[in-house]
Backbone:
């Protein structure tokens, strides 16, 4: 017994199975690859030169341009309005779907899962042009309301992911106890289900908001001229002329994404 | 006796006590049927309709011309010939997505394994670093990549010192690089999730029992991370196949993928029925891929949920 142990330790010293040659440099290369374009954008947002790739001197003038640009402000307002409405609606619908699906019959569940899964599998461009067709056929004017409907739809599967995961881990005993003690469905929902699901609902809402704010393709087709969202506006800027202003907006959005992520991480850690 | 046998059946129908009624799911299902189901149906219907003589939209006349036009070209003199343009577009989309999947897979396995074998604190930090790009707009990430690969970007400047010419922007390599860049985290994270659960004592046990290092990798480690690899392949290949921004911004419209052609037909080209036929083809190809993946996963006995 002791003989085998010492021999394995000897061999373990020679070959460490947790460290393969090349893994570490590959990991560092990948991290460098993932971050260098972002770092480049941040650095060049402080470049005073009008020509993007030539470094002139340090300046924050592009940030002033961004703050003075009323088109950007309007686009940001549209993005936030659509994002907030889509987040609230999609998260609410996702909670309802997650709870209702638990007891749904097979056939109904299959249809529901196909509809929920569709935005994850089918290319966004297909849904975007289909939604455009729908809105024109039904007479929904292209604009903010249509955008809110479309965003709510493709945010539902993302909001649903953490909620379903949490629901499958929940201990059913409190539900049965409450039911045995005479609580009705509404009381159980309000007093037990929703409090237990709260962290997952929060995570789902965050995911839905990120997906909505980030969306480009659907917004591009459905927004119409009046409801341009920030990604659609930035895309237009990139297409027409490369101004260093885009670097400044991008940096601000990076800052926003980063702080939302860190904030949610801290909130979730506090809860634990 | 009869009462005993009927009780479980009734219970199964009602679900367990305390659970919400299935009616709760009706509203979300109706909403999704309207906002997801109907648009997909519209695309299928439009693909069989004629294009109006002027303006956008469709003319309600049934035709198979849109599907024929995907492969056959009618010349001015009335003769027909095989049209390879759209076959090429589909092939390009498939080929770029495949290449993206292979490259991200080859890079992600070492990265995921390396992160999974770090100590807890370092591991959390590294996972956060890989997750952060998930939350950053794909538009901005693609734009960042465009500046990196631009002729006068950092790579171009560096190679300029050695008088090496660098010009890949608005060409296929730039598009592929952009796809790899954007979808890399989608491959690393699921593989990491599998690798993190792997108990390395198993590998050590196999090694102690006389397995060679490569045998341990092939027979013990790779099968253990296979569910993550399969999820990663699905999460990269499917969105890459329908990607729009990378070929638009980095390929400069010269290297069209299928999403760009669909967008163009619903935009400037104003041919909704033809765009719809292409969209239907894209849906079919995507579903075919999903079925193949699910089949492969089931045959292996892995439980992989794509949705």
Residues:
């Amino acid at each position: 017994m002791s003989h085998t142990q010492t021999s394995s330790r000897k061999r373990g010293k020679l070959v460490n199975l947790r460290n393969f040659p090349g893994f570490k440099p590959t990991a560092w290369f990948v991290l460098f690859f993932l971050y260098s374009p972002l770092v480049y954008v941040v650095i060049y947002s402080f470049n005073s030169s009008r020509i993007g790739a030539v470094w002139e001197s340090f300046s924050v003038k592009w940030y002033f341009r961004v703050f003075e640009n009323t088109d950007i402000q309007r686009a940001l307002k549209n993005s936030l309005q659509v994002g907030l409405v889509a987040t609230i609606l999609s998260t609410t619908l996702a909670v309802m779907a997650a709870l209702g699906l638990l007891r749904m019959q097979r056939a109904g569940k299959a249809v529901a899962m196909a509809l929920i899964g569709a935005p994850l599998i089918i290319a966004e461009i297909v849904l975007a042009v289909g939604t455009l067709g729908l809105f024109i056929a039904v007479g929904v004017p292209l604009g903010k309301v249509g955008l809110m409907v479309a965003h709510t739809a493709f945010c539902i599967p993302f909001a649903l992911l953490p909620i379903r995961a949490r629901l499958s881990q929940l201990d059913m005993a409190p539900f049965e106890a409450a039911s045995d003690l005479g609580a009705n469905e509404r009381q159980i929902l309000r007093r037990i289900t929703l409090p237990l699901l709260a962290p997952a609902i929060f995570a789902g809402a965050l995911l839905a908001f990120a997906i909505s704010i980030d969306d480009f393709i659907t917004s591009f087709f459905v927004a119409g001229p009046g409801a341009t969202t920030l990604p659609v506006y930035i895309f237009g800027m990139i297409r027409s002329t490369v101004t260093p202003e885009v670097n400044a907006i991008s940096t601000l959005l990076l800052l926003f994404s980063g702080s939302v992520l860190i904030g949610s991480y801290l909130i979730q850690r506090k809860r634990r | 006796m009869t009462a005993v046998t009927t009780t479980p059946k009734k219970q199964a129908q009602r679900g367990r006590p305390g659970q919400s009624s299935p009616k709760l799911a009706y509203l979300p299902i109706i909403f999704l049927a309207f906002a997801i189901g109907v648009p997909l149906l519209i695309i299928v219907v439009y693909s069989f309709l004629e294009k109006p003589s002027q303006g956008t939209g469709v003319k309600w006349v049934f035709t198979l011309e849109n599907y024929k036009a995907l492969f056959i070209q009618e010349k001015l003199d009335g003769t027909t010939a095989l049209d390879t343009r759209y076959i090429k577009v589909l092939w390009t989309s498939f080929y770029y997505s495949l290449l993206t999947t292979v490259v991200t897979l080859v890079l992600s396995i070492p990265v995921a394994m390396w992160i999974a074998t770090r100590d807890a604190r370092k591991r959390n930090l590294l996972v956060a670093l890989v997750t952060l790009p998930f939350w950053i707009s794909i538009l901005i990430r693609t734009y960042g990549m465009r500046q990196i690969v631009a002729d006068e970007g950092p790579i171009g400047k560096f190679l300029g010192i050695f008088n090496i010419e660098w010009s890949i922007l608005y060409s296929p390599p730039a598009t592929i690089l952009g796809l790899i860049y954007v979808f890399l985290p989608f491959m690393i994270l699921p593989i990491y999730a599998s690798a993190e659960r792997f108990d390395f004592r198993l590998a050590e046990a196999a090694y102690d029992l006389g397995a060679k290092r490569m045998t341990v990798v092939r027979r013990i480690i790779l099968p253990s991370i296979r569910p993550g690899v399969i999820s990663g392949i699905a999460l990269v290949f499917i969105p890459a196949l329908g990607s729009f921004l990378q070929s638009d911004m980095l390929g400069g419209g010269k290297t069209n993928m299928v999403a760009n052609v669909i967008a163009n037909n619903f935009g400037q080209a104003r041919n909704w029925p033809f765009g719809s036929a292409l969209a239907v083809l894209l849906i079919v190809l995507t579903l075919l891929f999903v079925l193949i993946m699910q089949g492969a996963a089931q045959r292996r006995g892995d439980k992989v949920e794509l949705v």
About this structure: Residues 1-14 of chain A have pLDDT under 50 and may be disordered. The two ends of chain A are 43 Å apart (CA to CA).
